[in-house]
């Protein structure tokens, strides 16, 4: 996202670009990318106003005046391609004279000419993706960048334990491509944002855990750290201060009260991280030029801090909050958690333009903040009057009338992004290649197979409606308005003596709970834990994994004895047994896949895809011989891993994606339709991932089923992370 004066730039329809003039409410649509746009930036000058967009395959500079003129003349506007095939671009920034563009792609920074396709310099040295870069205006040819670097120190062993996940900014002289400064260790979390304070000659950087650092850029200060600000603590202090004066943040429509003290958290609340997405200058005194009472000295600098949950204003004189705006406190705003945001540097008519994108939905909103009203309300000793407007919400899709609140206005919920390309139709015709019309074909008349799996979509309407209705009645939905489950309601002992429980899984309808134990048994309980539904025994080792089928009739279990068993819920004898001769190592995970068409299991550093047929009938003469059959389809090895520590795949609807985590701390994405690995995230966590969880959703939702499979969480010894499968970040 990008903002500049009255202009907002954001991607639409996956690879298109929209530049919206909020003054005239006229959108300008630009096309030229073939892949998703990952970074945007406006130029430093107003005339001409430039905007740069970057994707995986190209970087394009657009002259908005020329593009607008082309559209008025009926032509398609074209930009200047200044770079191609640079990789995943996370950040771009124009130089102060708009002659060069710094492109942060992967671990490198490319200095490109803004006039033509020319690489002026390549700055390497970072060991992880570069997240932000800024030009130093008072010292020519100086560029400052921050990254997700993880620095290893071999001098002392204990240092490597503490700084394994630490990150550091670097300072470059891009005219000679020479690294002239590298800072020491700053934090254990990725550095996400960066700003240069020209007035005080300082840099401000923020990380993913709500921490701010301020460094001096004065030549004889040697980039020393001036201040460290914990935004979580500052938010609590600010809320307590407002609570004591009898105020609430926001419009008060949802009756959300502030905490009285730091250690009093509302019941059911969950503490989350506070990633700093943006740091921008704040025109604080311009908005108070008619005020006689100025809250602070005229020499003080103020900055906007954009986080995932709201906007903050920091006073650099005392490093305290001056104002706080939380997204969740405004009913007119549909976005509660932001994944990215952008702000205008200068206020227009006392109002600041803000652009935010939702974390969980394909939605973008434009906000207009009345800075003077926001600060005045939160600092005064009286509640706002009814006619004082400091937050407003402007209607969606550029056409609805304004909806106003106190000091905030949502100018629009602009777009629903389309991340799913339409399917390609098969154009090969079924023509016989033999002379006889009635002959059994050997397969040459069929179209070539374009997909490894093909879901059965030829259900009759009546059958599909019955299936849909019955499943809707059985499935239980978690109440969205309820608090997360943080208190246990019941506790039972599953065995007479203490026995470790290695795995648990609810059935899809929430009626039954399967439990795998160290005593080699599998127990099935009712969901309310009032009765043992069934007990399965037969494994010779501890049960590592249990998994339900989609129709809730079967249960698959894997054990330390290197065997896999499939059980019928109504029968205590296994319907299928795969013995030790099938596997060289312990089967640590097993589940049904592709709506009970296959079984996935982990064995060592690879996972197996098995096709199967279950038959519980018995032959009187061969009653001990199982009729169920199972066949290995393919083995998929994980890249550079000694062992797969976790696996996840969707069985609720047809999905080709399988996610694995290895002992090498990597996360790998497999496309079983293509039959190969498609992406690897190296060092996804500091420690090995022991759990992957996908948002599996429901196959009967009004949305596309694939839309539920966009986010996943990974859990390891260093914490829990939320990932976006579209960007693998």
From TrEMBL:
<dbReference type="InterPro" id="IPR015943">
    <property type="entry name" value="WD40/YVTN_repeat-like_dom_sf"/>
</dbReference>
<protein>
    <submittedName>
        <fullName>WDR27 protein</fullName>
    </submittedName>
</protein>
<keyword id="KW-0853">WD repeat</keyword>
<dbReference type="InterPro" id="IPR001680">
    <property type="entry name" value="WD40_rpt"/>
</dbReference>
<dbReference type="InterPro" id="IPR042411">
    <property type="entry name" value="WDR27"/>
</dbReference>
<feature type="repeat" description="WD">
    <location>
        <begin position="536"/>
        <end position="569"/>
    </location>
</feature>
<dbReference type="InterPro" id="IPR036322">
    <property type="entry name" value="WD40_repeat_dom_sf"/>
</dbReference>
<dbReference type="InterPro" id="IPR011047">
    <property type="entry name" value="Quinoprotein_ADH-like_sf"/>
</dbReference>
<dbReference type="Pfam" id="PF00400">
    <property type="entry name" value="WD40"/>
</dbReference>
């Amino acid at each position: 996202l990008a903002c500049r004066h009255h202009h907002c730039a954001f991607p639409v329809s996956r690879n298109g670009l929209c530049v919206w003039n909020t003054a005239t409410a006229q959108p300008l649509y630009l096309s030229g990318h073939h892949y998703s746009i990952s970074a945007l930036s406006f130029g430093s000058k107003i005339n001409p106003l430039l905007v740069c967009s970057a994707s995986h395959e190209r970087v394009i500079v657009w002259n908005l005046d020329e593009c607008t003129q082309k559209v008025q003349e009926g032509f398609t506007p074209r930009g200047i391609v200044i770079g191609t095939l640079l990789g995943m671009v996370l950040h771009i920034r124009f130089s102060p004279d708009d002659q060069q563009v710094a492109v942060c792609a992967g671990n490198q920074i490319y200095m490109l000419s803004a006039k033509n396709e020319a690489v002026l310099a390549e700055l390497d040295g970072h060991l992880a993706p570069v997240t932000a870069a800024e030009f130093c205006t008072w010292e020519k040819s100086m560029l400052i960048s921050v990254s997700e670097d993880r620095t290893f120190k071999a001098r002392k062993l204990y240092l490597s334990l503490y700084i394994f996940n630490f990150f550091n900014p670097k300072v470059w002289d891009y005219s000679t491509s020479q690294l002239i400064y590298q800072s020491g260790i700053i934090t254990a979390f990725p550095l996400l944002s960066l700003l240069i304070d020209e007035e005080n000659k300082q840099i401000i950087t923020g990380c993913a855990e709500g921490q701010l650092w301020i460094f001096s850029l004065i030549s004889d200060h040697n980039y020393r750290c001036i201040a460290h600000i914990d935004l979580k603590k500052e938010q609590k202090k600010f809320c307590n201060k407002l609570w004591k004066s009898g105020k609430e943040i926001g419009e008060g429509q949802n009756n959300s009260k502030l905490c009285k003290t730091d250690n009093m958290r509302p019941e059911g609340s969950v503490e989350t991280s506070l990633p700093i997405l943006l740091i921008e200058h704040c025109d604080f005194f311009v908005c108070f030029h008619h005020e006689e009472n100025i809250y602070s000295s005229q020499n003080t600098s103020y900055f906007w801090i954009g986080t995932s949950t709201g906007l903050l204003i920091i006073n650099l004189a005392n490093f305290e909050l001056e104002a706080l705006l939380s997204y969740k406190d405004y009913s007119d705003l549909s976005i509660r958690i932001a994944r990215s945001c952008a702000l205008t540097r200068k206020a227009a008519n006392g109002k600041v333009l803000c652009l935010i994108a939702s974390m969980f939905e394909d939605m973008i909103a434009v906000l207009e903040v009345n800075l003077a009203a926001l600060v005045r309300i939160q600092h005064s000793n009286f509640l706002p009057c009814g006619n004082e407007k400091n937050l407003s919400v402007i209607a969606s899709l550029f056409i609805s009338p304004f909806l106003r609140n106190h000091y905030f206005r949502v100018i629009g919920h602009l777009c629903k992004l389309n991340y799913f390309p339409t399917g390609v139709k098969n154009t090969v015709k079924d023509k016989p290649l033999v002379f006889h019309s009635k002959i059994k074909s050997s397969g040459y008349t069929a179209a070539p197979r374009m997909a490894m799996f093909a879901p059965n979509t030829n259900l009759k309407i009546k059958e599909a409606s019955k299936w849909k209705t019955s499943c809707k009645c059985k499935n239980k939905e978690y109440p969205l308005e309820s608090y997360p489950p943080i208190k246990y309601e019941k506790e039972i002992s599953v065995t007479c003596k203490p026995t470790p429980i290695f795995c648990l899984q609810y059935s899809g309808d929430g009626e039954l709970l399967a439990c795998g134990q160290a005593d080699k048994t599998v127990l099935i309980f009712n969901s309310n834990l009032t009765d043992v539904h069934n007990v399965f025994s037969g494994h010779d080792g501890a049960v590592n994994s249990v998994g339900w089928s989609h129709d809730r009739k079967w249960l698959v279990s894997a054990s330390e004895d290197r065997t896999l068993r499939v059980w019928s819920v109504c029968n205590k004898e296994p319907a299928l047994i795969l013995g030790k001769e099938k596997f060289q190592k312990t089967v640590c995970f097993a589940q049904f896949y592709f709506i009970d068409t296959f079984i996935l299991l982990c064995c060592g550093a690879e996972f197996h895809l098995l096709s199967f047929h279950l038959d519980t009938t018995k032959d009187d003469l061969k009653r001990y011989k199982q009729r169920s059959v199972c066949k290995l389809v393919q083995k998929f090895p994980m890249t550079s891993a000694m062992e797969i520590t976790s696996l996840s795949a969707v069985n609720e609807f047809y999905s080709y994606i399988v996610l694995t985590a290895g002992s090498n701390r990597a996360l790998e994405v497999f496309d079983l339709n293509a039959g190969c690995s498609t992406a690897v995230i190296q060092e996804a966590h500091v420690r090995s991932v022991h759990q992957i969880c996908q948002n599996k959703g429901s196959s009967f939702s009004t949305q596309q089923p694939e839309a539920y499979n966009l986010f996943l969480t990974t859990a390891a010894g260093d914490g829990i992370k939320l990932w976006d499968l579209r960007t693998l970040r």
